[in-house]
Amino acid sequence: MSHRQSWDWGCPRYLLLRWLREPAVGAAGPQFAFPEVPVVPRPDELDGGGPPVVVACTSPLTVRLAAERGLPMLLGMHCGDQDKAEMVALWRRTALAAGQPPDLVAAADHVSAGVVQIADTRADAAETLLKAMPGWLQQGLSAHRTYDGTPRAMRDPVAYTELLCALHPVGPPRLCADRLAATAEATGITRFALLAEGSGELDTTLENVARLGGDVLPELA
Description:
51% helix; two-stranded antiparallel ribbon; alpha/beta
């Protein structure tokens, strides 16, 4: 089987990579099957040379997959700083061993996912999330299905929300800024994807985003 054919029969991520790199893409595998079609517009014709690709990494396997291809990681909100630092270190070792240029490895722009909720006290911020997040986490987590149908234990949504409140910038502005700075120092990651709408309410979300920009970011600057 040729290299190109093996991609046709592989995971959906390979189709995405082919779409970014080839003028036309088709597939003939058990999961996806469609005739070859041209990619329009070409990714390299877009401003900035095409969309950035970030790989969501939740295990050593996905860390190595991203590193071998020189692609930055998106690290999940369930991970603490130590876990994220270990994944970044594994990514660097694997990328260098795979022959990725040292300057690319040094400049890798990984992303740390988390939640943010700003209030005058930590208790008030946590209460806002604990009122809303367990409900929609319950709905989302219960809908998860494993690819092979094996049973999967679901996280307790209240305990998971409490964990997120403990790990991430949830509280007054100074505490939020300190948590972001601590993550950056421990992991080297300075890009954050923060869930600001955990309250589930539009007005509260808008206020949260305004306080993030007006009260927290100046503390970091």
